[in-house]
Amino acid sequence: MPGAGTVESPTPEQTSPRESVRYDVWKTARDSRVCALCRPLHGRVYRLDAVVDGRAPRPPLDANCRCLIIPISWI
Fold first, then answer.
1. pTM, entire model
2. Selection from 17, 28, 33 nearest residue 67 by Cα
3. CB 26 within 8 A of CB 57
4. What is the pLDDT of residues 20-54, one digit of tens each?
5. Residue 32 or 3, more confident
6. What order of strands is seen across the sheet that includes strand 68-74?
7. Are strands 22-27 and 45-47 parallel, antiparallel or unpaired?
8. CA 23, chain centre distance (Å)
9. Which of 51, 55, 53 has the alpha carbon at shortest distance from 67?
10. Which end of the chain has less Cβ packing within 10 Å, N or C?
């Protein structure tokens, strides 16, 4: 039994499937060279599995694309 004030990490059996989902955010350079395809995507959040299987966009969208998808959290 843990002592007062200690926190135990959940065991794999206690972890729900939702807790293993990773989310990523689309980031542009936010300058005048960002293309019309990428501009509206800045700040959009996607599940990583949607990006990997093609249900969400993935950079590069054009030959000069400078966009990134950045991991934001594991929940």
1. 0.66
2. 28
3. yes
4. 678 999 999 999 999 999 999 999 999 988 988 88
5. 32
6. 45-47, 22-27, 68-74
7. antiparallel
8. 3
9. 51
10. N
